[in-house]
Amino acid sequence: MKNSRRSFIKKSSKLATAAGLSTLPFSLFANSAADSIRIGIIGLDTSHSPAFAKLFNAENPKPELAGFKVTAAYPYGSRDIKSSADRIPDYIKQVQELGVEITDSIEALLEKVDVVLLETNDGKPRLAQARKVIQAKKPFFIDKPVASSFADIQLIYQEAESNQVPIFSASSLRYMSNAQAVRHEGKIGKVLGCDAFSPAKIEAGHPDLFWYGIHGVEILFTVMGPGCESVSRTHTADTDVVTGKWKDGRIGTFRGTRTGKHEYGGTAFGSEGNLVLGNYEGYEPLAEKIAEFFKSGVSPVDPAETLEIYAFMEAADESKRRGGVAVAVGLEK
């Protein structure tokens, strides 16, 4: 089963080219308010939803975000996570003030939009919601966590691929300037290792790191790239330390904290020096990548890398259950 999982992760790298321009349900040359690419939001239970709506619906948006408009939203969203559900009334009000129509179903929303931001904070309904978007053939960005289990995440990506529906997922932390400079500009030469950190609050019904640790794990993978073969995890009541060994022998670590001041960042180690990765830079860099994705139909992050990130976090859970022993990434329970 381990090999079948790995083969699917590798196969999924083809998704970026399999679902291309021919699948897009709109013109790439929209240049007025009347023919803007219409964005629909599923889930008004996270701060990401009004944040993206404000960026895309700004009176004078950045050039990278021009030609888009959030036109409709379906609020739900978490119903059984109180901290998320309690946000919905205020976020409905915020997006309505931006001219966004509130729909009473996902199906009604899908009839009114060209592309989708699947923002529901709770990973448990994500598979069912994603299937509706895929059935409607709408390209979609699916926010963290992609789903509440690795099995569901695989199904979402498999079904998007088989239906040639473009899909993209990433944490906004991937687009920290220094992390991008290390990965794509050779800022420190050959990457030798990375120590990343973020909050790692836990939510019932999700593997531990899926809920919030995803941010720091994505920083780690942005710097290191894919290719992690095994994971070990140690933990206390307050902190998790996850150590990954890459196929080429490099070591990367993620430290997640559940108490105290919550910050994001890390240090990258390279053949030409080390670099502190800096601080969170907001949603705008991710929104620009989402806009680029909606225009091209090609995910800026290889789907295989996204799948490996979640396999890494699932392996970290398995290591915890086994008392900290090393667990192969992608190992079937």
From TrEMBL:
Keyword Signal (UniProt): yes
Keywords: Signal
Gene3D superfamilies assigned: Dihydrodipicolinate Reductase, domain 2 (3.30.360.10), NAD(P)-binding Rossmann-like Domain (3.40.50.720)
MF (Gene Ontology): nucleotide binding
InterPro entries according to UniProt: Gfo/Idh/MocA-like_OxRdtase_N, Gfo/Idh/MocA_oxidrdct_glycsds, NAD(P)-bd_dom_sf, TAT_signal
Domain Gfo/Idh/MocA-like oxidoreductase N-terminal: 37-167
Signal sequence extent: 1-30
Cited PANTHER family: BCDNA.GH03377, HYPOTHETICAL OXIDOREDUCTASE
Protein name, UniProt field: Predicted dehydrogenase
Native organism: Algoriphagus aquimarinus
